[in-house]
Every structure is written in C-alpha cells, then in structure tokens.
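Weekly sync notes, structure subgroup
Attendees: PM, AL, DS (notes)

Item 1: joint prediction request from the bench team. They want all two components modeled as one assembly rather than separately. Inputs as received:
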Amino acid sequence: MALLEIKNLHVEVDGKQILNGLSLAVEKGQIAAIMGPNGSGKSTLAHVLAGKADYEVTSGQVLFNGEDLLAMSPDERAAKGMFLAFQYPLEIPGVATMTFLRTALNAQRKKRGEEELSPPDFNRRVFDVAAKLEIDRDMLRRGVNVGFSGGEKKRNEVLQMALLEPKLCVLDETDSGLDIDALKVVAEGVNRLRSPERSFVLITHYQRLLNYIIPDVVHVLSRGRIARSGGKELAHELEARGYAQYQEELAS
Amino acid sequence: MNAEIRPIKTAAETTLSTAFASAKGRLPGLAALRESEFKRFETAGLPHRRVEEWKYTDLRALMRDAKPLAAPPGADAKVRAKDAGAALAAVEGRRIVLVDGAFVPELSDFAGLEGGLTIRSMAEALAAGDAAVAERLGRIVPTDNVAVALNTAFMGDGVVIEVAAGAALTRPLHLVFFNSGGAPASVFTRSLAVIGKGARAMLIESHEGTPGSDYQVNTALEIEVGDEAHVDHIKITGEGAGSLHVSSLMAAVGAHARFNEFLFTTGAAVVRNQMFIHFKGEGTVAGIRGATLLNGRQHADTTLVADHTAGACISREVFKTVLDGESRGVFQGKIIVQSHAQKTDAKMAALALLLSEEAEADSKPELEIFADDVQCGHGATTGALDDDLLFYLHARGIPPKEAEALMIQAFVGEAIEGIEHAGLRDTLLEHVAAWLKTRR
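Output from the run, pasted for the record:
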C-alpha cells in the first residue's frame, strides 16, 4: 500500500478550479518530485495536503496510510505524520522558537498517546539538530523566524521537520529564494532525514534542487493534473525544453 | 456659553448626596476640602458620554446605583483577607493589607522595616491633621476629574508611604486591597507615596474581591517621585465579577528619574483606570504599559494623560487589550508636550486583539505638542488573530485552542516582557495562562 494515495482530486479556490482530477501515489520511503509551471496547482496541492481552509475539495479522495486524510484537521494530520515545509515560513513575534518547537512536539506526542519529552531531553535533541543545520542557539531564543533571512527560515523548516519526525514531508518550493550555499545546507538536512520509513514530496519549479536531493520519481503537474511521470532524467529534460509542450498538450 | 440643564439627579447621584450629608461628620480630616470637592461633583454629576473624557465609559449609565459606604471590616472579613494577594507570592513583597478600604496593620508585614521607610494609615494621618499629607493631597497632579473629586470627598482610609532620600527598598511593597463582599458596599481609598531623591521603590497594588459580590471601588493613589529616584508601580485589577472599579493615579516625576507603570486588568464588570502623569523634571525615562484581558460583558477603560512640562524625557507607552465575548475595551491616551519641553521623545502604541465578533475596542490616542524639537508618535491597531499564522501552528500539530493561546500569550507578552522584576513578570504570565484556561 502506498503511503499517500491521491485519487481523482478536484479542488476549487474562490470558485476557480485549480486541481482537476489529480491522481498520484507516493510509496513508503520514496522521494517524489512534482514539477510544473506557475499556476499548475503545485502550491494548492501542498496546502490541501496540509489542510488549509479556503481550499474546497469538490471530489476525489486522499488516503494517508490508508486513512481518509481530508476528514482530519490540520493538527491531526501533523500528529499522523504529515509535514508541510512552507514556501514562505511565517514570522511569529513573541513566540520563541524553543517554545514553538516544544509546544508542537508535545502536542503531537500527546495526540499519539506518548509521554511528553523532558526538558533536558528536548533541549539536547533541538541543539543537536540545530548544530547540524548551522542554526545558532541565539536564533532559537528569538521569536519564530523573526528577523531571519530567507535561508535561515528554510533551515528552520528543516529543523522542525527533523524534530517532528514526520512520515511524509511535503516541501513547497523550498529552493525559492535560496543562494547555492543555503540550498546545500537545506538539501543536506533533508538528505539526513531520508529513510525507508519516510517519504518526500518535493514541489519545485526548477530542476536545481534535484541536483542535491535526488528523486526516485518525477511527476509533471500541468493544469491541475499529472501530465507525465518518469525517472530523475525527466527533470533534466524539463530543464532543457521547458514546460511549453505540457501546456500545449493539455490545451489542444 | 453652553448651559447644560440637568435638573434631575440619577438614583446613584441622589444616594451619594445623602451618603455625603450623613457621613461627612465622621470622615477623617480636611472637612472644607471634602465639602468643596463634593460640590464640584454635585455640579457636574456622574460623568456621561457627552463629556469627552468619558465618551466611551458612560459612568452615569454604568453606575445604576451607589452602594452604602463600607462598614469597618469585621473579624470574619479579616480572616478571609489572609489569603488575598497570594497569587503574587513569588514577588516576595512586603504585604500591606487593606480590607474593605480600611488599613489592617495586624495583617500587614512590618518585620525588619528598611531604614528610611515609613508606612502609616491615611485615615489616622488625615484625622491628626498631618501637615505632610495635607500639603500634598490633591496637589501632586491637580485635576478637575470628577472621579477624583468624589474620591477626595469620601476618602476613608489608605496608606501613606514615605521613602527617604537615598533609601533603596530591598523588597517590593505589596498593597493588598481586599473586598470581603459581605454586603453591597462602596469603598473609597486614598493613598500617598512620597519617594525621596535618589530613592528606589517598587510598589505593587493588587485589588481583589469575592466572586459574585456587589461592590464599588473608587481608589486613588498619588505618587511623588523625587529627582533621580527609581520607582516602579504595578497595579493588578482582579476584583469580583459583579464589581465596579474606578481608579486614579496621579504621579509627578522629578528630574533624571526612572518611572515604570504597569496596569494588569482582568477583573470587575466595569473598570476605569485613569492615570495623570506629570513629567516635571528633565531627563527622565519612563515606561507606561499595560495588559487587559476581558470576556463576557466586561468593560475596561484605560485613560492616560502624560504631561511633559520639562524637556528631554523619554516615555514609552504600550497597551495591549484582549477582548473576548461581548466585552469592550477602551484606551484613551493623551501625550501633552508643553512649549518648553524640548527634546521630548514619546511613543505610544495601543493594540487590541478581538477574539469574538461581538467584542468592541475603542481607541483614542492624542498628541498635543507645543514644542518644536520633539519626537512623538502613536499607533493604534485593532484586529483578530491572523489565520495564516494559526494555520502554521496547526500544521505543526498544535490544536486550535492551544495555537490561539500561544498567539494571545505572545500578544500580551510583548507588554509584560518590559517588566524588570523576573518574579513579577513570570507571575503575570501565569495570570495570562490562567485567564486563557477560563475561555470556553
């Protein structure tokens, strides 16, 4: 059984059809890249999976570990192992990163019937992961993402991902706005989390990210559905030829 | 001339007149001042919405009746006062206890009184015709405010605190105002704090009452902050759910002093916290902040007048209001910079967070600037919690109620973080957490 199974998904935003019969399966341990032009529905897919309001699912089904994902609230999805790394991570003034991480981790553990982590154990885990991501402790004491650069915000997303140990990580345009050094740090962070028990969906416009995080499969999203699927070489083909052919194929 | 015709007194005004006539013979001292202040009240009546200062807090409508003057506290009330103020235990302050408006020395802590500190009963000082009190009372920051006039007319007891020049108090003074709620009552307390040159003092007031009891409080405090003194004043308004609480602070701050004011308000059905702060010496640094959390049908008004008559003072004002249910929060802040108060640097921010569709926030910031070389500004915002931020928290597994609580704590936390005393800061953050637990 696939970890994530999306069947014939139709989604509207403000009455406008964005996803148009999307079907996709992501196997356990698989890294799937979803590439597509602007407006193809990439970010909509990411937000629908995480459970954001304002996205109306008009038909279709999403199974996560065999369970009906769309029936769950966003926090329930997170506790079951869904994680969305935001394209634009938000700033939360007044909530220290440590408080945010502890609240999130303990809320998830509580929902799964697990014990809360003791403060020393929690601190050790955070500091350990943060060091690998080159996030200094001073940043952890500041408000979440407040005054962080674009690269620091993305590293903070990977920090959360590492700490929360999700089953499925959806990375929404994680490469956007990153210079090459920042991209490498983020990619290394993601690669460290690769495991046979964990799947990834990498949503990206460009092939660049896939030089650092090598996907098992590449899907091309166009006009709200998967237009083509293939191996990692498909990404190179897209880089060389662009998305025009997929837009034309569907338009005709 | 706009002649106002108000021939008919409200029930509350009539009761106050009767109460004054019968009580004035036994109220302690300053009979002539009481008489003239009461006349002033009678002429103006209870302030209502057509009086600009009271536009959003129509006391005439909110105060349906006036309760009889509180009787001296009995043994039972004193027993119940023993636990009052316990929520502030972490502050380790010196407890000075007032029950139903009367100073109770036997419940207060006079052990190892620091050198240069004196604490005594206001009623006794007034009755004895104490010159130091008489020459200051009502004169620290003169005002024609009607609530203050009413307080002066009826003031019963309170405390007189003197800190000698250069003395540094090692413990905060914690004034515990406990209202026993045995019978419907009105309480008029008046206190005076004279902090000498270069002295250091922290003054905490906590006001609390018995839930469900029916009482009215009119409390006033005058503070004289000497040159180079460092004074923190924190007022925590808990009070019982059915009560009405009107409070006036008159503070005059000398030169090169530090003055920090903090108002924390969660209680009473109706609260009016008014502050009249006069910066009369140069080079003072002041922080005037507050956090108000309301629900149900509560109404709380914070009114500040900061008057700069001397130059080069820095003041920062930050007020945060969280409104749930059908509650109403009012903020009126006026900064006045007189023509010779050059180099004044004053910034005021009033922010309200609406947690329900039925809650209402009214904000009126004002700047009156007569000097030409100043930096003054104000900002006021009112809004709901940001849905995108909440989604970010939900997506990390934080359930909606917990996510809201985290955001609300962050919102009021910005004002509370400014408090220097760690114990007090933590205590107030715990108060916020406790308030959040009471939300449905």
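Discussion: Chain B has a mean pLDDT of 95.
Action: AL to compare against the crosslinking data before next sync.
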